[in-house]
Amino acid sequence: xxxxxxxxxxxxxxxxxxxxxxxxxxxxxxxxxxxxxxxxxxxxxxxxxxxxxxxxxxxxxxxxxxxxxxxxxxxxxxxxxxxxxxxxxxxxxxxxxxxxxxxxxxxxxxxxxxxxxxxxxxxxxxxxxxxxxxxxxxxxxxxxxxxxxxxxxxxxxxxxxxxxxxxxxxxxxxxxxxxxxxxxxxxxxxxxxxxxxxxxx
Length: 201
Ligand SMILES: Cc1cc2nc3c(=O)[nH]c(=O)nc-3n(C[C@H](O)[C@H](O)[C@H](O)COP(=O)(O)O)c2cc1C
Fold this sequence. Notes:
48% of the residues lie in helices and 13% in strands. The chain is globular and about 50 Å long. The chain has a single domain (4-185), classed as 3-Layer(aba) Sandwich (NADH Oxidase). It has helices at 4-10, 24-35, 54-63, 69-72, 86-99, 105-119, 123-145, 160-167, 196-199, and strands spanning 46-51, 75-82, 151-152, 173-182. α2 (24-35) crosses α7 (123-145), α3 packs antiparallel against α8 (160-167) and α5 packs antiparallel against α6. The chain is of the alpha+beta class. The structure holds flavin mononucleotide. Flavin mononucleotide is lined by residues 12-13, 15, 67, 153-157, 191.
């Protein structure tokens, strides 16, 4: 098992995979890592579709602007936010946190006011707000994957509508990213990073 520091330093985007299957148990461990991520008012809007079917993976390549490595991975996780329950879950989570004395009453009131605003947004507008939560959950998966020797690559250059069509989802299932997962068939050097002094403002 890697330390968090080791996982962060070891992670690379992997785009070449061995054909070896990833077990159901490991996939559940990965989704469990996502489940434990923090979210706005504990709303937990993330949803994950685990795809192993080659025909569907090939369709995902088309949605991912012909990024062929997506279909080469034994597993692709389609990472989404469910907008249908989002505002209700936001309120539920807020009340729960208030009941547990985590949130003050003024925060509860702010969320209630915000909820009306959120209900007035289009799915596309709301999705952009909600997917911040999904991104954190994805990072949990990417780091946890390293404990099992697995590689991942977040893919966001994507025609989201095409993805929804593949699964027959309506607009309330906001597609955020694809996450191809498998045992790496490459060992890339660390990619260039800005120095600390460049990023501390
Ligand atoms: C928001 C986001 C979108 C990305 N989209 C793609 C993508 O569509 N295709 C791809 O090959 N890599 C994609 N990547 C991976 C980046 O290219 C990669 O993280 C970056 O080059 C740094 O390399 P590293 O992850 O190996 O450190 C994406 C990463 C992020 C965070």
